[in-house]
Specification:
Blueprint lengths: L2 H5 L2 E9 L2 E2 L2 H14 L8 H13 L6 E9 L16 E8 L5 H4 L4 E6 L14 H13 L3 E6 L2 E5 L3 E6 L2 E4 L10 H12 L3 E3 L5 H5 L3 E6 L3 E5 L1 E2 L2 E2 L7 H17 L1
Parallel strand pairs: 5-6, 5-13, 9-10
Antiparallel strand pairs: 1-2, 1-3, 3-4, 6-7, 8-9, 8-11, 11-12, 13-14
The structure holds 4'-deoxy-4'-aminopyridoxal-5'-phosphate.
4'-deoxy-4'-aminopyridoxal-5'-phosphate binds next to helix 6 and strand 11.
């Protein structure tokens, strides 16, 4: 009778852990709090409480130097299957999975993506556990043997099924602005910082599919995938299928930040 199971009534987070240390802990906890506030669930732990539980889970899996800590908070169990609810005790579920990151040499080979209409709801900034559209897209990507599905809403490229998207044109980086149509990715924020570090211009503005296909570079980002260059979209090469130099710079800086901050 858990409402997470019955309705997808909950929020989640994924914390990347490198050598036992969480990358972007504060940002992930902040996004979690915002999600809980949006759906009116009282946070069952304070920051100290979360850090202690997450670190305990990490300590059970020390054999993995990269762990993805998945944390879900559902509204809890009810004795009725009504859509509405009273005051419930939230359910907390956590798991650690090892994850691998491809090497830079692997990434330099490039990756494929396909585009689809972004049929998701208009509150994509909430990291809700109800992910039906996202998982259907992810499965489509798997069936097509591609890395990701790039989503397009009313002609505007938003993000991907489980990652944010960047393009580079004439030495300027573009990414969709924060708001209801994208998840505010923690990796996205880190990439913006990497661009600022190099004084590369970065614009958080919308762009359409023509701009995407005409880009010098396209990348996707997420906590467990980091920054992945996309070199073919819908079977057409981007920049003749070559991985760009801006990606390489950002990738290197991201690796450096990871080792300082994690
Ligand atoms: N957009 C969507 C739809 C996602 O599911 C994710 C990953 N959970 C991201 C973007 C990237 O977010 P983050 O960088 O915080 O992992």
């Amino acid at each position: 009778m858990d409402r997470g199971f019955l309705f997808g009534d909950g929020v989640y987070e994924v914390f990347p852990v490198y050598n036992g240390l969480i990358l972007g802990l504060e940002s992930h906890l902040k996004r979690l709090q915002e999600g809980l506030d949006t759906i009116n669930i009282v946070n069952p732990y304070d920051k100290k409480g979360w850090i202690s539980i997450i670190n305990e889970l990490i300590s059970y899996h020390q054999e993995s130097n990269k762990q993805a800590i998945y944390l879900q908070i559902s509204r809890g169990c009810d004795d009725d299957r009504k859509h509405t609810h009273g005051k419930l005790k939230p359910t907390v579920y956590m798991q650690s999975s090892p994850f691998k990151s491809p090497t830079k040499d692997d990434l330099l080979k490039g990756s494929d993506a396909i585009t689809r209409d972004d049929i998701r709801w208009s509150q994509c900034d909430t990291k809700a556990t109800s992910l039906l559209a996202n998982i259907m897209f992810a499965q489509e990507a798997k069936n097509h043997g591609v890395e990701e599905v790039i989503l397009i809403r009313n002609g505007i490229v938003t993000e991907c099924s489980s990652s944010n998207l960047f393009l580079v044109k004439n030495n300027c980086i573009y990414t969709h602005p924060k708001g209801p149509y994208i998840l505010p990715g923690i990796t996205r924020e880190m990439i913006i910082d990497c661009a600022k570090y190099y004084d590369i211009e970065i614009k958080e503005i919308t762009f359409n599919k023509d701009s995407l296909m005409d880009a010098d570079e396209v990348w996707i980002s997420s906590s467990t995938r980091e920054v992945v260059p996309i070199t073919r979209i819908d079977n057409s090469p981007i920049n003749n299928g070559k991985v760009g130099e801006t990606w390489s710079l950002i990738y290197d800086r991201y690796q450096a930040i990871k080792s300082i901050n994690a």
